[in-house]
Amino acid sequence: MQNIHISQAIKKLCRDNNISLTELQNQCDLSKSFIYDLEKRSASPSCLKISKIADYLNCSVDYLLGRTENPETNLKVTHHSKKIFEELSKPTTKTIILPFYRTPASAGSGSWLTDETPVEYTNVPKTEKTNAADFILEVRGNSMQPKFFDGDCVLVKSSESIYEGEIGVFILNNESYIKKMGRGELISLNPAYESIKLNDFDNVSCAGKVIGTIEL
């Protein structure tokens, strides 16, 4: 229930201050599915994200957490507040650099992927998954919902093949897709989208296996 309260408090403050959720997401480095994750997936936001949101909306952390009805009040000592300050004071997490392609992974009708696709390099926290990844792609479209949403960033491990049932990035007739590998087809998770049947004359290859998501 606390996550629902957090999302409701955020929405109210955004309305009161004429701030769109998109603006909040961009300014606080939140994923496009942040509010959805709070309400539907019961995802627990990190203390650092809550602190960023509170600073941007000019309210107290305790107000977002439902510990006070006054947006300007922070309780002097709370267990959650203590955790926030402890997390913020921790040493900086080790990072690694990964290539980041913003356009090629399409969860929709396909997108172009060539050697000239723009790439930038970004620092990400060093974890088991990021250490195993070779590059990052930004998802376009919504055919892979509810697992991946438009704008999500996915970690990809380069591989020329994946097992049936795994999710990968595929190049089909010079267009790229993020899909689940099926038997003779590339499968969409969103039932509103048909899977892509593969024909003998199709030029198809696997660019890598999707091993997780990351917030940038």
Please characterize this protein's 3D structure.
- The chain has 216 residues and is an alpha+beta fold.
- The chain folds into two domains: 2-88, lambda repressor-like DNA-binding domains (434 Repressor (Amino-terminal Domain)), CATH 1.10.260; 95-214, Umud Fragment, subunit A.
- Helix content is 27%, strand content 29%.
- The protein is built from seven helices and ten strands.
- Strands 1, 2, 3, 4, 5, 6, 7, 8, 9 and 10 form a ten-stranded mixed sheet that branches.
- The longest helix is centred in the first third of the chain and has 15 residues, at 2-16.
- The radius of gyration is 20 Å and the shape is elongated.
- The two termini are 27 Å apart.
- Residues 106-112 have low confidence and may be disordered.
Question: Key features?
Answer:
single chain; 216 residues; alpha+beta; 434 Repressor (Amino-terminal Domain); Umud Fragment, subunit A; 2 domains; 10-stranded mixed beta sheet; 7 helices; 10 strands; 27% helix; 29% strand
Radius of gyration: 20 Å
What's the count of strands?
10
- Give the second-level CATH assignment, the architecture of the largest domain: Ribbon
The CATH topology of the largest domain: Umud Fragment, subunit A
Strand content: 25-35%
Question: What characteristic shape results from the CA principal axes?
Answer: elongated
Number of domains: 2
Residue ranges: pLDDT <50 for 5 or more in a row? 106-112
- So, the CATH homologous superfamily of the largest domain? Umud Fragment, subunit A
The N- to C-terminal Cα distance equals 27 Å
Major beta-sheet overview: 10 strands, mixed
Number of helices: 7
Give the H and E element order.
Answer: HHHHHHEEEHEEEEEEE
